[in-house]
TrEMBL record:
<feature type="binding site">
    <location>
        <position position="107"/>
    </location>
    <ligand>
        <name>Mn(2+)</name>
    </ligand>
</feature>
<dbReference type="GO" id="GO:0048046">
    <property type="term" value="C:apoplast"/>
</dbReference>
<comment type="similarity">
    <text>Belongs to the germin family.</text>
</comment>
<keyword id="KW-0479">Metal-binding</keyword>
<dbReference type="GO" id="GO:0030145">
    <property type="term" value="F:manganese ion binding"/>
</dbReference>
<feature type="binding site">
    <location>
        <position position="66"/>
    </location>
    <ligand>
        <name>Mn(2+)</name>
    </ligand>
</feature>
<feature type="binding site">
    <location>
        <position position="59"/>
    </location>
    <ligand>
        <name>Mn(2+)</name>
    </ligand>
</feature>
<dbReference type="InterPro" id="IPR019780">
    <property type="entry name" value="Germin_Mn-BS"/>
</dbReference>
<protein>
    <recommendedName>
        <fullName>Germin-like protein</fullName>
    </recommendedName>
</protein>
<dbReference type="Pfam" id="PF00190">
    <property type="entry name" value="Cupin_1"/>
</dbReference>
<dbReference type="InterPro" id="IPR006045">
    <property type="entry name" value="Cupin_1"/>
</dbReference>
<dbReference type="InterPro" id="IPR011051">
    <property type="entry name" value="RmlC_Cupin_sf"/>
</dbReference>
<feature type="binding site">
    <location>
        <position position="66"/>
    </location>
    <ligand>
        <name>oxalate</name>
    </ligand>
</feature>
<keyword id="KW-0052">Apoplast</keyword>
<keyword id="KW-0964">Secreted</keyword>
<feature type="binding site">
    <location>
        <position position="56"/>
    </location>
    <ligand>
        <name>oxalate</name>
    </ligand>
</feature>
<feature type="domain" description="Cupin type-1">
    <location>
        <begin position="11"/>
        <end position="161"/>
    </location>
</feature>
Length: 173
């Protein structure tokens, strides 16, 4: 009885996000945190802006499948199947093309062009969550022991120390 139209409204997906960051992308999120009326409805939306050669780095949504539509530009997109196969499913998309990323699988998008690209994605949860793989592994707080990561990635610990010392970009608004 106390809800009104503003509980079901968001304005601003027509505005490009700031892609001036290390990964060259920006995700504008429209989920239950922006529209309270989405609570329990099982759906949300994002706009993703990509600078030339920008990417939405490998990440996963633990609670949602994503369906992405390219609005402008070209994107290289893909996801990796689960263990033990770990097979890359990959496609080049142009404006008007659609691609699905199944729930929980690591996926990415990359703009190979000299122009900006824009995509809109719908997710099957009002709160899909996002885990950016590099941020989670190398930017955790507190840090995962470098020896553990060196063994897991089969690299010298100095490589891990270097990765952990870098600032990891969060491109989600």
């Amino acid at each position: 009885m106390k809800v009104d139209a503003d509980d079901f409204f968001f304005s601003g997906l027509n505005k490009p996000g700031n892609t001036n960051n290390k990964v060259g992308s920006n995700v504008t999120t429209v989920n239950v945190n922006q529209i309270g009326g989405l609570n329990t409805l099982g759906i949300s939306l994002v706009r993703i802006d990509y600078a030339p050669y920008g990417q939405n780095p490998p990440h996963t949504h633990p609670r949602a499948t994503e369906i992405l539509t390219v609005i402008e530009g070209t994107l290289h997109v893909g996801f990796v199947t689960s263990n033990p196969e770990n097979r890359l499913i990959f496609k080049v998309l142009n404006a008007g093309d659609v691609f699905v990323f199944p729930v929980g699988l690591i996926h990415f998008q990359f703009n190979p062009g000299h122009e900006n690209a824009v995509a809109i994605a719908a997710l099957s949860s009002q709160n899909p969550g996002v885990i950016t793989i590099a941020n989670a592994v190398f930017g955790s707080n507190p840090k995962i022991d470098g020896g553990i990561l060196a063994k897991a990635f089969q690299v010298d610990k100095k490589v891990i120390d270097d990765l952990q010392s870098q600032f990891w970009m969060d491109n989600n608004n």
